[in-house]
Amino acid sequence: MSTTYSPPPSQPTQRRSIVGVVSLLISAVALAASAAALAMHFFCDPLGSGISKYDLSTPKAALVSQMKMQLNTDIRAVLELESRLKGRTLKEAISTLDVRKEAEYRGRKLLFVSFKEDGVTKHKVEAFTKDANTGFWIPDYVGEYEVEKDDKDLAAQMRRWKERGDL
After folding, report:
1. How far, in Å, are 42, 73, 100, 151, 157 from residue 45 at the CA level?
2. DSSP labels for 9-45?
3. Taking residues 96-117, what's their average pLDDT?
4. Rounded to whole angstroms, how far apart are CA atoms 24 and 40?
5. pLDDT tens across 20-63, in order?
6. In this predicted structure, what is the pLDDT of residue 2?
7. Neighbours of 84 (CB within 10 A)
8. Gap between the Cα atoms of 48 and 153, Å rounded
9. Under 8 Å CB-to-CB from 28, ≥6 apart: which residues?
10. In the chain, what percentage of residues exceed pLDDT 70?
11. Of 38, 53, 55, 135, which shows the fewest CB atoms inside 10 Å?
12. What is the three-class DSSP state of 76?
């Protein structure tokens, strides 16, 4: 009679199988998370769906749609709406823009510009301030009343330019 003896399972073998199961679960979770991230990349748009999702055909529908754009943080729709409303006017202004004079006031640059808007020539004074951190010129506001305190002649030029286009 021959009997074979097999020892009872040892602790190290059980520990190895638990570690293997835990490793498999962690790998499965990581794979699922990466699949979800990939799906979000291809199917979700962080800027929003765009203007086609909204109804702008009546005043009431437009009001509701604009509220929904804000609620949904639909940046793409807001930008598309602005582009459609102002795009033609901005193209005309850019193509007819003429900087006639540049002046300086308290570290700001004042540009005396003319451009056409709906076929009508407009005259404005645009102010810019240089940002110290970036070096970019940022739009700023400077009114004639502020300038008049220090430089009456420049303030008068600004008024004449805006009213008549005279320098």
Report:
1. 8, 11, 43, 51, 49
2. PPHHHHHHHHHHHHHHHHHHHHHHHHHHHHHHHHH--
3. 96
4. 24
5. 888 888 988 988 888 877 777 676 667 788 899 999 999 999 99
6. 61
7. 11
8. 50
9. none
10. 88
11. 135
12. helix
Q: Which residues contact 13 (CB under 8 A, 6 or more apart)?
A: none
Residue type (1 letter), 13: T
Give 116-149 pLDDT, tens digit per residue. Answer: 999 999 999 999 999 999 999 999 999 999 999 9
| Pair 73, 48: CB distance under 8 Å | yes
Q: Under DSSP, is residue 130 helix (H, G, I), strand (E, B) or coil?
A: strand
The answer, yes or no, to whether residue 87 has pLDDT greater than 80, is: yes
Sign of the alpha-carbon torsion through 52, 58, 64, 67: positive
- If you compute the radius of gyration of the chain from its CA atoms, what whole number of angstroms results? 33
Bridge partners, residue 109, by sequence: 104, 128
d(CA 130, CA 134): 8
CA 35 to chain centre: 28
Please report the pLDDT score of residue 36 as a whole number.
79
Domain segments of the chain as ranges: 51-89, 97-164
